[in-house]
Amino acid sequence: MTLQTGPGDPLRLQLLSQVQAQAIHEASLRVLQDVGYHVPVDEARELLASAGARIDGQRAYIPADLVERTLQTLKPVTLYNRLGAPVLSLAEGKVTFGALADTVFVRDPYTCSNRPYRKADQVWFTTLLDALPNIDYIQCVGQAADVPNALQTQVAVLQTVCHTSKPIWVLPYDRQGLLDTLDCVEIVAGGRGPLRERPFMICVSVPAAPLYGTRENIEVLLTCAETETPLITYSCPALGGNSPCSVAGALVLSNADWLANVVMHQLKHPGAPMCTAGFTVQVMDMRSTLWSYCAPEVFLAYAAVTDLAHWYRMPAWGLELCSDSPQPDAQAGAEMFAECMFAFLSGVEMVHNAGIIGAGKLGAAEGVVLADEIIEYTKAMFQLPAFDHMQLTEMVKMIAEVGPMGNYLEHPHTLGHCRNMWYPQVFDRSMFDPVRKEQGVDLMQRLNARARQLIETHTPLPLPDETLVELERLKASWYRRMSNH
Q1: What is the distance between the terminal CA atoms of the chain, rounded to a whole angstrom?
Q2: CB 207 within 8 A of CB 40
Q3: Which tens digits make up the pLDDT trace of 446-456?
């Protein structure tokens, strides 16, 4: 493991050498060729068979040369916002952050109690994420207790695009959900052509188990290729659970998953937009069976995942900025900061789930505000100072002007540069007073106050009235179709 930097370049943590990344790639190829991948979709098996894979029932044995050929068709992806402006050039190595607008449970910012997530929560949660400056894209899955299962993703996406102009990340449950979602965002974009030219939606396809694609995830993957919808595909290994109890084993197994999905996706439409390489990593806590997002072993695993993604010359995906703690407390702050630090050190292009607590189960306004503060704090740490000759000459001149025991507070240089320093929004820097009885508002109260202030005062850029009418018609057609079934 090494830390590398050059003049003017950011610090970078490198865990894998080029030789080690090559070895993991070759081990994954052996897994796909000798163990195979479960493919329950006829079209996908036909694509694989016609390209040289051996098919036995629903298992496909994918040869190494087929994988190598399809990797050559991958291209960089740029994501846009709802207005058509490029905001995420994923091939440039820039660390970006996304946050989930809908979780199974939510901490109500007004009652401060936990309850099942409801459709109405999508509005205030998306508004909050739209307001937070360090959240680059918004994730919506569809997990509302008061929405029919068949329309979860569709309703979540419709509400999200009405309350943010940021790119959105979508996890459709099946092909129909994806097609409905595309109908929705095409209305917003002004048609399929403009959406393909300036995509502001990323679709996600997640295999259910190691070396095992489900019908739903493979059909979503193939439909993304067919429609040229930007795709992220990844598996979710938990060390000791559904993965070997070692980082090396998880890398080999989960990379094989990613490669199998890349092959099917690119065979369907070579050059179709694939956003990232990589996968999430958890540790299965053998005392509680909880899948821990924040175990220390996870951080090194993500550094390796990032190195492997960059070896493929792809942006990296996987690291999450969340907490195992069930409340936004000191543990949550410590875990989020550690993850944020590793994100910048490793150079992960897409970090997700910012601010989610309770090991991925609970959304809290306070959690995402805390995550936003930590991101900005960490960004400031990685603004490397200049040490060039001109800068140092200027400093020597100023020191000579001020002299020994000098007062730099009154120097014009201080006035010109003090605003370049980072100043917190919710962290407390007030002067400690040992005799004051009350030491001010605690962090949780400050987080809640900032969240409520943004929810109540921020106005996302509205959609045109005629677009809103079309979206309401579309939503009504979804409910009619469901009632007819």
Answers
A1: 57
A2: no
A3: 999 999 999 99
Residues 290 and 329 in one domain: yes
Q: State the residue range of the domain holding 156.
A: 70-381
Residues 280-309: tens digit of each pLDDT = 998 988 888 888 888 888 888 999 999 999
pLDDT of 10 over the 80 cut: no
Residues 319, 407 within the same domain: no
Whether 100 shows a pLDDT value over 90: the answer reads: yes
d(CA 134, CA 96): 8
Same domain (yes/no): 96, 217: yes
Query: What residues are paired with 363 via a beta bridge?
Result: 106
- Does residue 19 fall inside a structural domain? no
Count structural domains, the chain.
Answer: 2
Q: What is the pLDDT of residues 147-177, one digit of tens each?
A: 999 999 999 999 999 999 999 999 999 999 9
